Structures are given as structure tokens and as C-alpha cells.
Amino acid sequence: MLIENPAIDEVREADTAFGASDAREDATIESWNPSLTMCIAESYAAHVVPWGLDAPRQLRGGDRVTAGITPRLGCEWNAEWLGAIDLACRHQRDAGRPWFHMLPLAVTGPCGAGRTHVARRLAWEAGVAHIAIDVSSCAMVSGLGSPGRGPTPALPSALALAMSMTDCANPIINVTGVETADANTLARLAAATDPMRSRIDDEGLGITLDLSEATWLIQLPPDAELPAELQDFTTTVALTLPDQPDWVELAWIEALVEVATDRAMGDELGRLADWTDDGAERWRHPGLKAAARYGLAATAFEHVYGPG
Q: Rounded CA gap, 134 and 254, in Å?
């Protein structure tokens, strides 16, 4: 079930970016300019912003928003997911905001539905970066960084590192581990994802990140509840499994396509569709996680073409 948030439409009226270019304010979808940029970081510690994070970054995907994204995603059985994307693109067009952006989504569904797969596929088709972060209690370093305590130094966030390596100001940020995250981490995540705040202080770098144009996808395992800290501004969509009897074969083809796209080897799919390392066809197991199926597809490519 798609859970609509009635207050969310009012949020986009508040533009909280630090250094958006003048063109960002005045542009329209029809006159989309691929050089639209915004600044995503500023220092609060009176020093130079590290890792080049103060350089303007592109606001991408305006041409995709205009042309339409969902027809290229190829998962017609996920009506809620596609509906949420169509709604977001319509909001961007109506607001004259020529770049891709969605308000926070929690993505749930059965095991094997492909939460990471659909996030990565959306990033490809929207023309934006995909950044995966882990906020679970078992993560060695939280994707949101950690504050200094006594002799333990503050550590930069994986998010800041990833943002420094892409020229994209509006990435898709794919979050795992919220079901085991501690209270402090959830508070930081809420500050980053709440459209009225959309900022996070990275103590390890002495900067504040502006994430107002990032798209947040919060992964929820089956039967997990969205943490209370995120409920006021997050819409929940449920992925489903295809209803075709051969859906596992379809999922295998999707995994092969994803690996081929990652490696720019789409023309080689025909040689790999039936390959298995030992004849066991483990990818056929209906309870297999989509990430594990991707791993098997990657193994197929490595068997034929070697690592790379």
C-alpha cells in the first residue's frame, strides 16, 4: 500500500541549499541546462573544506524527468514504486525544478524483491549517482560518520567520501540497517532526510553537508517497521514479486542485465543466460536475496571474461 504524506507537498517550498547557482532558481524544465550546479558543503570549523567538497556539483536528470523515467525501468509489477517515481517527476516538472529528485521513501517488500536493484536501476535511468550507506549497529563505521569521544577521534562519514567522488549534487542515497540502528544514528539520519532540515554535520571533516536535493531510499526488510524518527516525512512503498510462474528466470535476466550494464557489456548477455558454475542453478531458489543473485550473475561474467 502506498502511504501518502499530506504535509510533504509544502516542504519543497523551502529551498535550503547553501550555494545554489542563480540558474537553479530561474531555470525551467523546458530550458534544462546540464551545467546547473549547487554547493553541498560549508565549513563550520574555520578551515578549508576538505576533499574538494566545496566545489559546485551538478544537478542532474532534468532531461530524464522531461522524457519520463518509468517506461525504461522494466518492472511493471511494482505499481507502487513506479507510481511514486511518476509522482516525483510530475512534482519536479510542475515546480520548474529541472533535475531529478524524490522525497524520502521507505522501500519494503518480500525477500528477493530487489530493493538495491531497483534503487540502482533508477539511478541509471535518472542519470544520477547511487550511494549506498549502512547505518546498522554492526557497521564498523556508520555511513553517517561518528563523533569524537575522549581519545577516539571523530570519523568522516562514508556519505561525505562518496559525495566527494561524484560530481552529482542530487544522488540517490540507498540506506540499509535502519532496523538495528541506535538512537543517535537515527537522530542523525532524520536530520539528513527530513526535507525541512536536509543537513548533517560531519564532525570528522568539520563541515555541514546540504543534502536537500538528494533522494533518500530507506530499505526495510520484510516485517520491519519504519523507525519513529523517520515516520513524519517518509512515504512507504512496497515492492512485490512478479506474478508470472517463471519470475525467477526473469529475476536472473534482470541480474545479468544489471551486471552487464555495470561493466558496459550488454552485447554479451546471450552467452551467459544459461551459465552456472556447477550446474546447481542456485539462482533459481525463490528465497534468494536479489543481492545474492547479482553476485551469482557477476560470477558468471568473471567465469567467461575474467575479473573486471
A: 24
